[in-house]
Structure formats: C-alpha cells, structure tokens
Specification:
By secondary structure, this protein is α/β, with parallel strands linked by helices. It is built from eleven helices and eight strands. Helix 1 runs parallel beside helix 3 and helix 2 runs antiparallel to helix 11.
Length: 262
C-alpha cells in the first residue's frame, strides 16, 4: 500500500486493492484443470514509514453521520467487507497470504492484517482497535477473525477496551503469528518462504483446513458490518467530534512522518 495522504481505507485505496485482487483472481484462481504455479505467496505491506494502515476513512464517516446517510455508510462497509472476504480466502488462488506490519495497524488497518493466513509484525509495530473511543466498534471483520484466533471472551475484551498493543504482546496472545526485529520484516519473510518451500503444499493445506473447519463467511461479515453502519447512525455529536479529532491527529502524525529531513 502506497498512500500519498492519510493512510486510511479511502475509496481510492480500496479501488487499487480491488485491482490487485481482481488480477490475482483472474490469473491464479484454480480452474478445473489446474493453473499456473509461479506464485506461492502474496504479501501485503505498506510503504508509509511507521504506518501499516490507520483504518477507516473517519472524515467520510463523520460526513455520513452528520448527513444521516445510512446508505453511504453501508456502501463503504460492503466495499471493505468484500475486500476482507477476498483477503481471507486467498482470492481463490493456491497461495499463502501474509500481512507484514512494520508500523501502526489500527482499527480497519488491524482488521485488514487479521484477514491473512499469517500475520508478521516487527517489534516496533502497534496494533489495536480504538473505535470504542468514539462509541463505535470495528465492523469489518475484527470480531469474526479474533473470535477464531483467541475466542469470544478475549475478542470482546480486546474490542471493548480499545487498547493499543505492542506487537510482542499480541505475539504472546497468539494474534501475531511471527514476531521479527525492527527493520527485518521483508528479509524475515523471504527467509520464511525459502526455509519452508519444501512443505508449501502441506502448509497451504493446513490453512485451507482452518478455513473449512471454522469458516468466515461473507454473509457473516455483511451482517456484522450492517450492525456497524446502523450503530454509527446513533452516535452523538460529541462522538462524531471525537472521530474528527482522531482524524486530525492522524493527519498531523502522517505529516510529521513524511516531512523531509534537513
């Protein structure tokens, strides 16, 4: 992901992600007679220093809520859910998917990373679901993916506390799968893929079995995200102002991050 402005899931970023997903599905989805075998791993990371993704488009949310535009919120939510479902099912291709988190993955950014087969994080990374700060909950897959990783009690506690966690703590909880040193994420993934090349078929089969035994279905994601959209319409003006202040803070952070040195 290579956002030029605030690294959140805007429609423009979503459209670019959709292009990649469509290309993978068109070229690598498994046909009846087999398909090309030159792609085994798909890795999603970010080119924004210190940031994987900061989540949903808070400016857009605030505008929709102030305008009482439930339809627009549902449209945004469905767009994200379709992206998440594709991520969580490997685009129908015989591959293993990996999220590489080298900075902040918050809200929808964390949800996005949870959808992949393997979540790799550098020690400096911070991950969490802060939506409770403005009286909302993460509605694009967090509950479903955390439920299957750590169970209902931990998942609900995670969402309701709104805490931002260091990657190491989430590794100990079993949410981060691979913890690597700062600055070594890409090299660690190359090493992982090389070392495990001989067991690729078995490893991929294990992740397929994970999906089969406890699947995250599209209808489940849609039901939850519709609850999210309807709940957003109930937010008070004070809640919306908190949302807007958080968007302001995100913009200040990214301006500092991208400021030229010297």
């Amino acid at each position: 992901m290579n956002q030029k402005g605030r690294p959140s899931y805007t429609y423009s970023l979503g459209a670019e992600i959709q292009e990649v997903q469509d290309w993978l599905a068109d070229n690598y989805a498994v046909p009846a007679n087999g398909g090309p075998e030159d792609l085994r791993y798909f890795v999603c990371g970010s080119k924004t220093p210190g940031v994987y993704n900061l989540g949903g488009d808070l400016r857009h949310f605030a505008e929709c809520i102030r305008n009482r535009d439930l339809g627009a919120m549902r449209k945004y939510a469905e767009t994200c859910v379709r992206m998440q479902f594709a991520n969580s099912h490997g685009f129908g291709a015989p591959i293993i998917t990996i999220a590489l988190v080298q900075g902040d993955a918050l809200g929808g950014g964390f949800e996005h990373a949870l959808a992949f087969d393997i979540l790799v994080a550098e020690r400096r990374a911070k991950l969490g679901l802060p939506e409770i700060v403005f009286n909302l909950f993460p509605g694009m897959g967090a509950y479903s993916f955390l439920l299957r990783k750590v169970g209902r009690r931990v998942a609900e506690d995670f969402i309701l506390k709104g805490k931002i966690y260091p990657a190491e703590e989430l590794y100990d909880m079993g949410i981060v799968d691979i913890l690597v040193e700062d600055g070594e994420g890409e090299a660690a993934i190359v090493d992982y893929c090389t070392r495990n090349a001989s067991r690729f078929a078995a490893e991929r089969a294990v992740y397929l079995a994970r999906r089969a035994s406890n699947p995250v279905e599209f209808d489940e994601l849609m039901r939850i995200t519709n609850i999210w959209a309807e709940t957003a319409m109930m937010l008070s003006d004070a809640d919306v102002r908190k949302m807007e202040r958080l968007a302001d803070a995100q913009e200040r952070k990214i301006k500092r991050t991208l400021r030229p040195v010297g």
